Amino acid sequence: MKCSKKLHNLMCMVVACCCIPMSVASESRIELIAKGFELPWSMEFLDETTLLVSERAGAIKVLSLKDKGQTSLRNVWPVAFGGQGGLLDLAIHPDYPEEPWIYASYSKAHSNGTSTALARFQLTDGAITQHEELFVSNAISSGGRHFGSRIAFDDQGYLFLTSGDRGERDWAQDLSNHAGTVIRLHADGRVPADNPFVDQAGAQAEIWSYGHRNVQGIVFDQDRGILWIIEHGPRGGDEINRVERAKNYGWPVISYGKEYWGPIAVGEGTHKQGMEQPIKYYDPSIAPSSLMLHKGDLYAGALKLRHLNYVALDGVGHVVSEERLFESLNERIRDVVEGPDNSVYFLTDQGNLYRF
User: For the chain, does the N or the C end have fewer beta carbons within 10 angstroms?
Assistant: First the structure.
């Protein structure tokens, strides 16, 4: 069969584009959108031209992409700022603005330490109104580590919140503790009746999965029906996992990482019956900070190795390849989202917002 000249030329263009490495193509299109954020942690689009950015010390900035102006929301509630804690993730209700709720995770102070908490609020004339605290983890620790704190919604409207192990490893295997888990709630904070441990004596009803170390990236893949997470390992052993109901992801019994104090494997090894395997692990660690799905593939911010980590997936969610983008920026990438314009936006610890 003979192809038309027009079709032949088009096919040649497609082949040529596919042969260009993503790093080459994307590096040429990066754009600095805004700068000056202080300890930023998360960002969410309210509409096509308005972006919310959380700052760990307890501020939420409103950025206009039209004129690049920044303002601060009024009436932000107190958070426990210190260590890795503070005002952390932001999420918008999937039916916003018909359901005008914005969600935030943060570290909350207690008399004997801090824990991860979740609230929702509405916006009125640049101020926070209708503030409601929905969930407070019982994983209270005086240490300032491993709050987890990423938020995602699935296609049924359930809310998922990640809770780190707080630096207390064994808590991640204890179902009486919210540490090292993925939490599942209704959008108003109620516990779903079909959560896996609702009827188990001594277990926390909010838990969906457990055995995690410190999940700092979560996203729901509607096309494949998969809830993806990315979590910090110790020295090596960062993981991408498919989160499923009631599953145990092994920390600290199994891990691909090593102890910080020496070249000794953590736990009992890398495999154990009844514990899940990651779809990908990183050794050495990249220190993942966030996770986004874009055109069927995953993107994760990297803190330690300072790049945007691109993971290509096949149709059923197997890893095809990995690429490390924007290493030349030498910035710790804290959050990455897909914008309403289908561009990728990422936020760095240095206070810069980029688009490509």
Answer: N
- The per-residue DSSP string of 35-50 comes to ---SSEEEEEEEETTE
Tell me the two tokens of residue 93: 């209700």
Q: List the structure tokens of 109.
A: 């102070």
Q: Which domains does the chain have, with CATH numbers?
A: 26-355 (2.120.10.30)
Write the burial class of residue 260 (CB in 10 Å: 0-12 exposed, 13-18 middle, 19+ buried). Answer: exposed
CA 114 from chain centre, in angstroms, equals: 21
From CA 44, how far away is CA 62, in angstroms rounded? 10
Of residues 239, 223, 222, 234, the one with CA closest to residue 300: 239
| 146 annotated active-site | yes
Structure token digits, residue 54: 């959380």
d(CA 300, CA 134): 27
Which residue's structure tokens are 């919140």? 161
Q: Return the closest-CA partner of residue 203 out of 242, 259, 248.
A: 248
CA angle 138, 143, 144 (to 5 degrees): 95
Query: What pLDDT shows up at residue 26?
Result: 54
Residue type (1 letter), 134: L
With a threshold of 0.90, does the pTM exceed it? yes
* Per-residue model confidence (pLDDT) at position 23: 52
Positive/negative CA dihedral, 70, 76, 82, 83: negative
Three-class DSSP category at 263: coil
Catalytic residue among 93, 146, 212, 307: 146
* CA distance linking residue 335 with residue 344, whole number of Å: 11
Strands ordered across the beta sheet of 59-64:
40-47, 50-55, 59-64, 70-72
Q: Which stretches of the chain drop beneath a pLDDT of 50?
A: 1-21, 24-25
Cβ neighbours, 10 Å, residue 157 = 12
